[in-house]
Amino acid sequence: MSTPRLTTVDFGGPDDGPLLVLGPSLGTTASTLWNEVAPKLTAHDRVVGWELPGHGRGARAGAFSVAELAAAVLALADERDAETFHYAGDSVGGCVGLQLMLDAPHRLCSATLLCTGAAIGTPAGWRERAALVRAQGIEPMIAASAQRWFGPGFARREPDTSAALLDALAGTDPECYAVTCEALATFDVTDRLPEIVTPVLAVAGATDIPTPPESLQRIASGVKDGRLAVLDGVGHLAPAEAPVRVAALIAEHVAWHLGRPPKPPTTSTGQGWS
Question: Is residue 1 situated within a structural domain?
Fold first, then answer.
């Protein structure tokens, strides 16, 4: 295994603003997952997304671990001369956020972890999925993801968004998808959550199947400084399904830790706080 070199998407923002790094979910690209959220965050912050190897414009890579993805994120921050930065990531992108806070706690100012877990699924399940994709390609994942990713009725309400996400999945390199599955098979930091001291906002989709709200509650209650927001009607890809709500949550979390007083959170947009 080796640290991959990550392809990035620069969403803009002031050159001298704090760096905010956005991480993807398995089978998605930064531009499809975060394209509605990122522009809402560029008023104060320099916003950069990263691609998983073999996803979108991401260069292919051999075997890697979640820890090596985290090291690659640190490398992209170094390239931008950012000694510290804020981070937000969905699913495997959230796992990378947890690893960053364990490996380099002095580098992260805050983390927003969406639709993720200290461990996701089972090792056997991930290895079976990797084997399936290697044998049959990415096609079996498309129908499964249409069921697994979205909250009830989302694909009907937002056909263009859901189609763009599934098209991005269809273009994913099967071997890189499989390698990412194997990285998730070996990822479990449940017992290490108490070590995390970075302020964490855990965001759950109320109807998320792969990482239900209990998974995010475990993170929020396990770290030193954590809180939970639950988004009603949202599945596994919260940044695409609820971009306005997600952007507001990230902006408030980042602002709080930069000394920019955020607006008080409300429950009027389907956000549950604890």
Answer: no
